[in-house]
Amino acid sequence: MRRYLIVANQTLGGDQLSAKLAEYMRAGPCRFYLVAPVTQTEASDQWAVGGLDGGVIPGAYKIARALAQGRLQHELNRLREAGADADGEVVDPHPIDAIRKLASREEVDEIIVSTLPRRLSRWMAMDLPHRIRRATKLPVTHISGPAGPSL
Fold first, then answer.
1. Burial class, 1, CB count within 10 angstroms (exposed 0-12 / middle 13-18 / buried 19+)
2. Quick one: how far is CA 73 from the chain centroid?
3. 3-class SS of residue 51
4. Is the pLDDT confidence value at 42 over 60?
5. CB 62 within 8 Å of CB 44
6. What count of other Cβ atoms lies within 10 Å of the Cβ of residue 37?
7. Helix 128-136 vs helix 96-105: crossing angle, to nearest 10
8. Is the pLDDT of residue 56 over 70?
9. What is the CATH topology of the domain spanning 2-144?
């Protein structure tokens, strides 16, 4: 059985990632472990509202974490309904350490990193696919596409 570690957040449920996972499922028995890093926000705990003169929304990290959890659960449900063996978790916005630990704990054959298009992706700006490859020494497949369905 092939085991895949999927790193995605905003692209969970998107067409490109869904097509890739369906391709792997058609190829034979596999297990997916999804990792949804919380989306990094400016100031990490506050979001400005109403422009520069507006107030702030406290707890932006909690909101971003709840969104990541919702996307993750939605995708896990979809995969399980399709017959996949799937599990996952939400991790901090800087996922390299978590991915390294999971890759050793979960006996992973390949890591799939799903990002927004290069011009929109912070993960691509930080070269996440290559950093994961260096940190884990595992094959990494990069998929780029628009965001998945909104919650």
1. exposed
2. 12
3. coil
4. no
5. no
6. 22
7. 40
8. no
9. Rossmann fold (3.40.50)
Mean pLDDT, to the nearest integer, of 89-93?
A: 92
Residue type at position 70: G
In angstroms, rounded to a whole number, what is the distance separating the alpha carbons of residues 141 and 9?
16
Q: Residue 17 is which amino acid?
A: L
DSSP assignment of 17-84, as one string?
A: HHHHHHHHHHHS-EEEEEEEEPPP-TTSSEEE-SSTTS-EEETHHHHHHHHHHHHHHHHHHHHHHTT-
Question: Residue 58: what pLDDT?
Answer: 62
- 99 within 8 A of 111, measured Cβ to Cβ: yes
| C-beta separation of 70 from 151 below 8 A | yes
Cα–Cα distances in angstroms (integers) from residue 96 to residues 41, 118, 126, 146, in the given order = 17, 19, 11, 23
pTM of the model: 0.86
Which residue, 2, 73, 63, is CA-closest to 32? Answer: 2
β-bridge mates for residue 90, sequence order = 36
